[in-house]
Amino acid sequence: MRALLLTALAPLAWGTTYAVTTEFLPADRPLLTATVRALPAGLVLLAVTRVLPRGAWWWRAAVLGALNIGVFFALLFVAAYRLPGGVAAVLGAVQPLMAAALALPLLGERISRRTLLAGITGVTGVALVVLRATARLDAPGLLAGLAGAAAMAAGTVLTKRWGRPEGVGPLAMTGWQLTAGGLLLLPLAALVEGAPPALTGGNLLGYAYLAIANTAVGYWLWFRGIGRLPAVSVAFLGLLSPVSAALIGWAALAQALTPLQLLGMAVALTGTLLAQRPAARKPAVAGKPTAAHTPTLAGTRYGDRLARR
């Protein structure tokens, strides 16, 4: 239970991303924000742990960093630009079902009726929280949202399948993946958005929070949890992110919460709890980790702002 609660802190923290972005960060720089979230945090963790990949772990860390951080962040923001934040959040909520489907061939974990019910319940709850009647659809945006969810699902399951090298802790693994993902995002941000703008003190404070608390600590808790819990159970914790974002929008940004949204939160939490079934612990297999998600764009002011641009 302690591992579950600590892991849940990660998506709850990711729900703060949207409020911090709207209130502290420069506008129209999503790829810069993604890069600053990942790369500095990864480099700091590498400096702290002083552990580098060896052998096959060079390419494995690159693959996991791309799926969990680089590719996921990039596709997440493409979806956010082309879709209302609520639609992007619902697409992200499909990720646990994708992880369950991949867990069958890669981990030998069968999809139970309970998992399917939890997935459908979770998607329904998130939809009630974030969707608006005016939501519009866009084919490239839909494809990007689904591809981003698939990347995160694949990263989660592969991390569980590969485990960690002997003697390497989750902090070092987090540093490897954040650095790999950040290095992938860096040239993309420079090519698409150009040189970064002049930053204010508020901008620097916002970036520092995202890099340290939201990303370095958040992803460390997430990867740590994947190493101790079933991959599908961890994937369902990602449903807490849009719920957290909506609550923070209400508490900090004076955004109204309707009775339908409150019902959606209860439904999403029900789906998350349904997926946390007790599982018989299996002995750890050498050389197998676990992965992350990252945040899902909820129908917050930030998600809707991105979609309108």
Automatic annotation (TrEMBL):
Transmembrane feature ranges: 29-49, 61-81, 87-108, 115-135, 141-159, 171-192, 204-222, 229-250, 256-275
Keywords of this entry: Membrane, Transmembrane, Transmembrane helix
Pfam families attached to this UniProt entry: EamA
Cellular component terms (Gene Ontology): membrane
SUPFAM superfamilies, alphabetized: Multidrug resistance efflux transporter EmrE
Major localization class: membrane
Domain EamA: from-to ranges: 2-130, 140-274
Compartment annotation: Membrane
Source domain of life: Bacteria
Protein family per UniProt: Belongs to the EamA transporter family.
Protein name: EamA family transporter
Originating species: Kitasatospora camelliae
